[in-house]
Amino acid sequence: KTSLFDQGISVPQLPRMCDVLQQFSSPRLSDIPAAVVGYVSVSVALQSQRTSAQEYYVAGAERVQERLLHRVESASSLVLSSASLLANRTIPEDAAIQTVRSLLAFAEETEALGIYDINGKVVEILAKTSQHSLPEQLSPQLLQYVRTNSTKQYLILCPPQQLSGSSVSAIPLCAVWRRQSETTKSISSPALTQDSSAVIGYVLVALENEYLCNLVATMSGTMFGGIQNRVYLTDTLLRVIAYADRLSAHNQPSMRGK
Fold this sequence. Notes:
Elements: H1 14-25, H2 32-87, H3 93-105, E1 112-117, E2 122-127, H4 140-150, E3 155-157, E4 161-162, E5 169-178, H5 180-183, E6 199-207, H6 209-223, E7 233-234, E8 240-242, H7 246-251
Helix pairs in contact: 2-3, 2-6
């Protein structure tokens, strides 16, 4: 066997060769802190962008909510005033209905108002145009929901649902039409103890699907540089009820898990 000495390699040279090999096989310790700091900086920057994006989306959702609540407040005033007029027995019924018609004319975002008896059958529908979603007969589900809640409150905001055989969802808003002695009590009363015999009927308007679609499309365009398909309005089951693409809204796709 030949030795290292026979090959002309001295033993003191071995450590220097190992040092050379080590330089190519592993990073220098002095480089590690800089690499870690760089990674952390990038991570923090990305997280900051994600947080900013989330805050922007939340702010957008709050703006849509504010507009929707303003619309609900306006419609609430209309149906409550109408129910009070209809319950006032000192005003002839024809005169009361004509006054309600005048109130509707000044309600810019409400196209129709329906007056229903206690069984959900229409008494009269007051409409600005023939294009509205109010039915001739309240569905059993809607009527049951209204009856259940009418013992606790004067104003009932119903879940989104299809009205009058329509394939699109609207949001019904209903005021309970009670006997005059009951309706003249404070609406801010925290609880109602009247039985169902005090109820004469219901006054109903609907937040139409077209209005809801226009609302989310407009808000999306405002927030995202004219792009109108970034904002959805969903129900509590995360089914889309309003979107810039009307066809998608009509199909009510679920956003669960997306």
